[in-house]
Every structure is written in structure tokens, then in C-alpha cells.
Amino acid sequence: MDLSHLPSLADAVGRRRPNLKPLPRILERKAKVNASAREEKRIKAAVKARDGGCCRVCGKRGESVHEIDPKGMGGSKTAVRLDNCITVCGDGVRGCHGRLQRCEIRFKGKA
Ligand SMILES: [Zn+2]
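Above: the input record for the complex with zinc ion. Below: its predicted structure, written as C-alpha cells.
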């Protein structure tokens, strides 16, 4: 199947070229999901850079990003925001991230 007449997924998000036909809905949805995944990745990198790559709980090397309030604002916005995330050690099971996820400890203060 030749799909060369279709615009690329990158064109569907933010870089739409005016003379091209719109993407089929399924590809448009996929492009939006990819764009939001890229945005989350960019925000998580910014969180790690802000925290100097260190765990905000114990000061060890930060390995993951924890969402302080895991729910987005009103369900419309993602919880992955610079003001809602901190760098922590471990993953969602081990280290400070695991302890936060299991509510053994609480992060108090501002991200
Ligand atoms: Zn830690």
C-alpha cells in the first residue's frame, strides 16, 4: 500500500503544511498521542535538570520523576507538569519513588 501521498505524522502536529490533505483520523490521534508523549518526556527532562539530577527526598542520584498529585487538573491537563513533579531515586517500586508510591513517605513542599 502506497501511503506516500499522506503527510507525515510530524506534519499533523504543529507543523501542518497548508496544501496537504488532512490526515486520516486514526493517524491524527496517533500523532497527538506521540506529541503528548514527547511533551511529557521534555517536561521530565526539565524536572531532572531543575533538580540537578538528584533525588529530592534523599539526595542520591535521581532516576525517575514522581508526580506529587498524580491526577491532572480537572482531568483536562496532564499531571506531568514542572510544578507537580520532582526527581526521585528508584523507580515506581524501589527507592524513594517506591516509598512515595506506597504512601510510606510524603513529599511536603513545593516542586
Ligand atoms: Zn531518594
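Notes for the reader.
The beta strands are 64-67, 85-88.
The longest strand covers residues 64-67.
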